[in-house]
Write a structure and sequence with these properties.
With 255 residues, the chain is α+β, with helices and mostly antiparallel strands. It is built from 4 helices and 12 strands. Helix 2 packs across helix 4. The chain starts with a helix and ends with a helix. The structure holds dinuclear copper ion (CUA). The site of dinuclear copper ion has 8 residues, from loops.
């Protein structure tokens, strides 16, 4: 073998070893943290409306089965919105009616659009990508008006959302199996549910109240209405959220 060839091999091996050594040092010696997925960054895990100036807002929108967060954004006319869109689960669409904003919410990515809303009115936001059984209920809105109270940092999200219980009904997935129009799905319809007498699979008759609904969410298999199967999963819902869901169910009267 030529001396030159030997030298080349030696230098190449040397460089390779140096690179590996530097890599090992940077991982363990310098304690460098590798960046995670952008959508797991705290700023993009929940909806937020940030008022930059009176006419400029930054809005973090989180899409998830089957709701947008925030559900309602209120601003004055001639407001510019910088919208950052993330998804917590699957692909969703995000289209703002009467504007040219048409984004996809893609898991693992943040998508951005800027829009200036000059005219007063209600700008509906719809999901235009089929994302499961609750897809057709997935919507939000921007209300633009002079007299309205504007959204902003100081307004808690819950207050900003009209009906929190209804939002939970969609976002927690209840909508997948429980209708609100009286038609049975995989589970009983929520229309007129509150106060109704239901026959359980063991023959027992139960009148639907707060306790029954709470138990049905916490332990779905405990008491199942006789004409249905025990297919409901345990959902991650807090006690406060259950209260909101119950007050929403109470509004769905039978008539
Ligand atoms: Cu989200 Cu369709």
């Amino acid at each position: 073998m030529l001396k030159l060839e030997k030298n080349v091999i030696l230098i190449a091996t040397g460089l390779l070893l140096t690179m590996l050594a530097l890599l090992t040092y940077s991982i363990f010696g310098l304690n460098i943290k590798l960046p995670g997925c952008v959508t797991t960054a705290a700023a993009f895990t929940q909806g937020e409306i940030i008022r930059k100036t009176d006419s400029l807002y930054e809005v973090h929108v989180v899409a998830k089965m089957w709701a947008f967060e925030p559900q309602l954004i209120k601003v004055k006319p001639n407001t510019t919105l910088d919208i950052y869109l993330a998804s917590q689960d699957v692909n969703h669409g995000f289209q703002i009616e009467n504007t040219n904003v048409n984004l996809m919410a893609v898991p693992g990515a943040i998508n951005y659009a800027r829009v200036t809303l000059r005219e007063p009115g209600i700008y509906h936001i719809v999901c235009h990508e089929y994302c499961g059984v609750g897809h057709q209920n997935m919507s939000a809105a921007i209300v633009v008006g002079d007299e309205i109270e504007q959204s902003g940092n100081s307004i808690p999200l819950a207050e900003n959302q009209g009906s929190l219980g209804k939002n939970l009904f969609n976002s927690k997935g209840c909508v997948a199996c429980h209708s609100i129009d009286g038609n049975p799905g995989a589970g009983p319809s929520f229309k007129g549910l509150y106060g109704r007498k239901e026959k359980m699979s063991d023959g027992q008759i139960i009148s639907v109240d707060d306790n029954y609904i709470r138990e049905s969410i916490r332990d779905p298999a405990a008491k199942v209405v006789s004409t249905f199967q025990a297919v409901m999963p345990k959902l991650p819902v807090t006690d406060d959220e259950i209260k909101e869901l119950i007050s929403y169910i109470k509004t769905l009267e039978a008539k």
